[in-house]
Write a structure and sequence with these properties.
alpha+beta, four-stranded antiparallel beta sheet
């Protein structure tokens, strides 16, 4: 049975078809809660009167967060449908794209950056970052998300499972945020990740790439092996 917010507190944590890491759902709800916290609370303020009811501060979200925290500790995976339901809830918000981008940043693996990587040539650092993004997405969602990569940093996805929960395309910012976070951990002053093409907007595939202030040599913009695209 779903709550008034559309979240099912008693949904099964593991079962047939469970392939998405629970940390994806946890990151979504933790970010929603963080965004919905008031910026300042006065000592004598009665929040029951002055603070409108916010989804991220509701009891059902708090309960779901505790459940997902347990699932993460137990390395459990959850059904794609459960993640899609959470994505649909977030897309109702006017700040959904910004929130999804922050979710992506928070999903970067703790070990995704190392100081020695900053000593590498820029092309090599981009190559490592590409591979890290591809592997991280596949680990999180239990299947390949990016199918083609190109140098210096271009990711392509002819199909996008995230869009099943958000036909408008804001959820693609999860990949944008994750890519930006990994790049920032791989090199100094990385370019900014953009999402110039999206299936939600009528394009044939989703594309993420990097724009730098100075153009890279044409020879760097070459296709990368299929093996790299699949991690």
């Amino acid at each position: 049975m779903e709550s008034e917010h559309g979240v099912s507190p008693s949904a099964p944590a593991q079962g047939a078809g469970s392939r998405v890491q629970a940390r994806v759902a946890l990151a979504l709800l933790l970010t929603v809660r963080e965004y919905d916290r008031p910026g300042e609370v006065l000592d004598d303020e009665d929040l029951t009167l002055t603070l409108p009811r916010r989804f991220g501060l509701s009891e059902v979200v708090d309960s779901q967060i505790r459940r997902y925290e347990q699932d993460v500790r137990r390395l459990r995976r959850i059904p794609e449908s459960e993640v899609r339901d959470l994505i649909r809830l977030v897309t109702r918000r006017p700040d959904s794209e910004e929130l999804f981008r922050q979710v992506g940043r928070s999903l970067r693996s703790a070990g995704a950056s190392s100081g020695w990587r900053r000593l590498l040539p820029r092309g090599a650092a981009y190559a490592l970052a590409r591979r890290a993004v591809v592997r991280r997405l596949r680990a999180l969602f239990g299947q390949p998300v990016i199918t083609t990569v190109s140098a210096p940093f271009r990711l392509e996805a002819p199909t996008n499972l995230l869009l099943e929960g958000d036909p408008g395309g804001e959820v693609c910012a999860v990949v944008t945020g994750l890519s930006q976070a990994i790049l920032e951990g791989s090199m100094d002053a990385p370019g900014e990740v953009h999402h110039p093409r999206c299936r939600a907007h009528g394009h044939d595939l989703c594309v993420w790439d990097v724009r730098e202030s100075s153009a890279l040599p044409p020879s760097s913009a070459v296709p990368v092996s299929t093996e790299e695209a699949h991690g």
